[in-house]
UniProtKB/TrEMBL annotation:
Pfam families tied to this protein: EFG_C, EFG_III, EFG_IV, GTP_EFTU
Keyword Nucleotide-binding: yes
Highest taxon of the lineage: Bacteria
GO biological process, one term: ribosome disassembly
Protein name per its UniProtKB record: Elongation factor G
Amino acid sequence: MRCFTVLGPSQTGKTTLVAKLASLEGTPRKSASPYGSSLTEFDFKDEAWCAIDTPGANEALALAQDALLASDACILCISPTPDEAVLVAPYLRAIEASGTPCLVFINRMDEPRGRLRDVIAALQAYSNHPFVLRQVPIREGDTVVGSCDLISERAWRYREGQPSALIELPKDIAEREHEARTEMLEQLSEFDDWLLEELIEDREPASDTLFAISSRILKENRIIPVLFGSASHSNGIMRLMKALRHEAPPATALRTRLAASSAADEATLSGVSFHAYHKANVGKTVLVRALADGLKQGAPLAGATLGPLQEAGNGKPISGPVQAGSIFAALKSDHLPVPALLTQAGSLEPPDWTTPPTPMLERILIPGSERDETKLSATLAKLAETDRGLKVMQEEGTGAALICAQGPVHLRDLRKTLSEVFRVEVSERAPNPVYRETISKPSDVHYRHRKQTGGAGQFADVQLSVRPNERGHGFTFAENVKGGTVPRNYIPAVEAGAREAMEKGPLGFQVIDVDVTLTDGQYHSVDSSDFAFRTAGKMGVKQALSQASAVLMQPVVRVEIHIPSVYSGGMVTLVSSLKGQVLGFDRDENAKGWDIFRALVPGGVLDDLARSLKSATQGIGHFSKTFDHFEELYGKEADSIINAHGSGAQTH
C-alpha cells in the first residue's frame, strides 16, 4: 500500500480532493474520521492507496505533522489567491522539516482569483524548495477551461463530469507555454547534469526522459511540482493522481527516511504509530503503518505483544499478518506510544519536527460531580498520551486540573471527548493569576507567645528584624542572638514559623524577597518548646509584614512569538497595547519567511495576547513563554487585583 497526506488551510477543498482521487477507479473501500483526521483507502492502477485528510485549522497542525510520519508523499492543497499564500506557511514549514516529498495542487481554479505566477512567487517566500510549475492554464476570458502539460506539451480541455479531452494546443497560449516550459527545464537542470548539457547544446530532451528526471528529483525531495485544477468539477484530478503514482517515492522509501531522521537502525524499524483515539467501551485505538512484513495479533512490537488488529476504516478484524506499507488499527495495545517509531523490542521518540506548537490557551477544568472529579485526572493523562498538542498540569495553590490547549476549537473537542467517550462532564474557567507580594520598608517586632492550659503552658519570646531583600533573592533567615537568650535548638523552629508566615501576606498573596533576622528573645525552662517558638516566629513575622508597607508583585513573562515575517511590523503595537516591552526580533533560522519576536509581557495578559495574536496573524502565529521575574504593581490596577484575588476578595 502507498500512502499520502493531503494537508493545507481550511476552505481549500481538501476533503473534496480526496474524495475525487479515491473515486477515479471505482468506489473507495473505506473511510474513517477519528478526531478530525480521515483515512480513505482505494485502488488505482492495480495498486492499493491510502489518503490521510487532515483538518485545516491551525490548532490541528499536530495532526498533520503526525500524518506526515506515515506518508510516502503529501499533497499541499491551496487556494489560487496570492494573498492567501501566507496561510500555507505553517504547512510548508512542517513539510520542509519532515523531508516529505510534496506536490502542490492549486485547487478551485474555476474561480478566477489571480495569476499562477503570483501564487507561486508568494509561496516561494516560505520554502527553500523551488516550486516548479508543471502546467499552464488554458483560458477563455477569465475562465480556466483546460491545461497544457509542460513536459509532454499535450493540451487538455476540461469536461464536466467526464475525463478531459485531448486537444491541439491553442495558438494564443503557445508563446506562454514555451516560456513556462523553458523556465521549468532550467529549474530541473539544476538537479541533473545531463539535462543541463542538453539545454546548453540546444537539444530538445524527450518527454519520457524528462518525466524520469522529474520523478527522481521529487523522490530525492529536491523540488515541489505545482499542478492545478478544480476538485469539485474533477478537473486536473487524473493528472495529479498519475503524478503521485509515477513520481512519488515507493512505500519502502519511508523506512529509510524515518531511520535517517531519527538516527535509528533501519533494519530494526517495524512500524510507525501516527494517530490514536479513544472510543467508549473500546478504549484506546492506535493507528500504525507497518514498515516490515509480519505484524499480526500477538506479534512483538514496542516491547510487548500486539492486541487484536483491525482494518483502519471499517473495523473488520485482520486475522493474518499485514504487509509492509499497510495501515492497521491496534486495539488493546495501550503500550504503544503515539507518535513513535516502533521496533519489536521497544519504541523510539519521533523526530523533533513532529513537536507541535506550544499550546497557548490555559484553562482550569471543573468537574461536574464528585464522581467526575475522581475520574478527571486519570482521564486527562490518557488524553495527553494520545494528543501531544495538549499539556496537563495542576494549578499552583489549588491543585485543580490545568490544561493547555492549542486554542478554543481544540478545547471544545477535548470537552466533547471527555463527555462522549469518558462520561466526564466539566466546565471551565481561566486560571487564577500568579501574583506575589513583598515589603517596601523594614520593620522590627517584639512578639511574645504565652498560653496557659490545664497542663504545661506555652511560652516563647522573639525579637525579629524584617527587611526587604533584593529582587529575586527570595526568603532568607539569619540570627545574631547572644548569650543564649534563645537556645540553639529552638532557632530552627523560629525559622520554620517565619517561612509559614510567607505563605500568605497582608495583601493575600505569597510573600517573596524578605529577610528575617532573629535578634533576641526569651524562653522558659518548662513551658518553651519547638511548637511555641514556631508559633512566635510565625505570628511575629506576620505582624512585621503588616507594618512594612506591603507591595503587590505581578509576574512578568518572556515570550517568543513565532510569526511569518509579513506580520512582524504589527507586533510592536500589539505588545505595547498589552503593556509589554519589546526586546527585538530575528529571522527564524529553521523556517524561511518566519520571524521570532521577543518581548516581556505581564503574566496576566497571556490570554489577551493569544487572542490578539490569532486575530493579527489569521490564526497562524503562536508563542512560547517562560517566567522572567516579578515586578511591583501600584495604583488602581493593583487595588483591583487585591480586591479580586487577594485579601480584598475575602471581605465581600
